[in-house]
């Protein structure tokens, strides 16, 4: 499982909790800046948009 898959799995399993990009970056052991930039490049969404957008899940996972 790559870092992005781990991040998405973490986000999906914690949707009903407060999710902060800092926490996700720590879980995947990546500096926050690189995590946020890479997440946007690969999924097309910021972490905030991905968490808040109910239609994002299937679309973003297909792109990586």
Describe this structure in words.
The protein is an all-alpha fold and 64 residues long. The chain has one domain. The protein has five helices and no strands. The chain has helices at residues 3-13, 21-27, 32-43, 47-52, 56-62. The model has no long low-confidence stretch (mean pLDDT 84).
Layout of SSEs?
Layout: H1 3-13, H2 21-27, H3 32-43, H4 47-52, H5 56-62
Approximately what portion of the residues adopt beta-strand conformation? under 5%
Number of helices: 5
Unreliable residue runs: none
Q: Helix/strand-derived class?
A: mainly alpha
Determine the mean pLDDT.
Answer: 84
Characteristic terms for this protein:
mainly alpha, single chain, 64 residues
Summed up, what is this model?
The protein has 64 residues and is mainly alpha-helical. The chain is built from five helices and no strands. The protein has helices at residues 3-13, 21-27, 32-43, 47-52, 56-62.
């Amino acid at each position: 499982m790559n870092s992005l898959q781990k991040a998405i799995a973490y986000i999906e399993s914690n949707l009903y909790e407060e999710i902060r990009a800092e926490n996700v970056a720590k879980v995947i052991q990546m500096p926050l800046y690189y995590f946020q930039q890479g997440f946007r490049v690969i999924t097309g969404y910021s972490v905030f948009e991905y968490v808040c957008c109910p239609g994002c899940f299937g679309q973003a996972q297909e792109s990586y």
